[in-house]
Write a structure and sequence with these properties.
Strand order of the largest sheet: 4-5-6-9-8-7
Number of strands: 10
Number of domains: 2
CATH topology of the largest domain: Chorismate lyase
Helix content: 10-25%
Order of helices and strands: HHHEEEEHEEHEHEEE
Strand content: 25-35%
CATH class of the largest domain: Alpha Beta
Number of helices: 6
Largest sheet: 6 strands, antiparallel
Radius of gyration: 18 Å
């Protein structure tokens, strides 16, 4: 298990069992570095994943606070059986030529080589999302040592590139999925569901990952955390 995953799981356990309570200011990054004997980048990656998961809230100039128990951020969780494990079935993983739509999302030329990853996300034994991901500067061979059935792709990318990969743009909109996708995610044919589009950037703000997920929106709660740069006009 990667060091940031160990830190993530440890802090998550403290929050879940109530040792670190809602609204509590958790130790600073430097204190966490000493506590877990790891580097600052490891702590930052763990805190970012905790923030994605809706477990903590980072406030500039004040620190990191425990949030009310919540669902995965930029992920989708059922309002029932919230403790069921999340896993992924890897359907396809290969390098392909990017079509014009994906190329625009990733700011690359048409037909440039990208990694294509297709997965189904499960909560317990129930399929809840059909996910397609395209990544630049990455080959299928580089993923062979990673457990894609249990790890989030942003965590894997951050480890491979040795930098924090953030979700910079996330949109959610309604969609009527194709019949075969409806069958995969266990919804009625021709029913309206949710499609999530995410573009993630590297430390130089260059897009490196695009994900499109069609989600079973029946009895689901969505939590989306956004990080807006200072001086940005995109805040709400």
């Amino acid at each position: 298990m990667f060091k940031h995953s160990v830190v993530y799981n440890s802090i998550k356990e403290k929050i879940v069992i109530g040792g670190w309570y809602e609204g509590m200011l958790i130790p600073s990054e430097s204190q966490l570095c000493e506590m877990y004997d790891v580097s600052r980048i490891t702590i930052r990656r763990a805190l970012k994943e905790l923030e994605y998961s809706g477990l903590v809230k980072r406030v500039q100039g004040k620190g990191t606070f425990v949030k009310a128990r919540n669902r995965d951020a930029i992920e989708v969780s059922s309002t029932e059986e919230v403790d069921d494990a999340i896993t992924y079935e890897v359907v396809e993983c290969k390098n392909v030529a990017a079509d014009s739509y994906v190329a625009r999302k990733l700011h690359i030329g048409d037909y440039e080589d990208v990694l294509y990853l297709r997965r189904i996300r499960y909560r317990g034994n129930i399929a809840e999302a059909y996910i397609e991901t395209w990544c630049t500067s990455l080959t299928a061979n580089q993923l062979k040592n990673y457990d894609l059935t249990n790890q989030k792709i942003l965590s894997v990318l951050s480890d491979i590139r040795n930098e924090l990969i953030d979700a910079s743009q996330v949109t959610v909109s309604p969609i009527i999925p194709e019949d075969w996708i409806c069958k995969i995610i266990n919804v009625e044919i021709a029913s309206a569901q949710a499609v999530l589009n995410r573009v993630s950037t590297d430390s130089n703000d260059i897009p490196c990952e695009y994900t499109r997920a069609i989600i079973n929106s029946d009895d689901l709660e969505f939590t989306i955390n956004s990080w807006v740069k200072k001086d940005s006009y995109n805040g709400l």
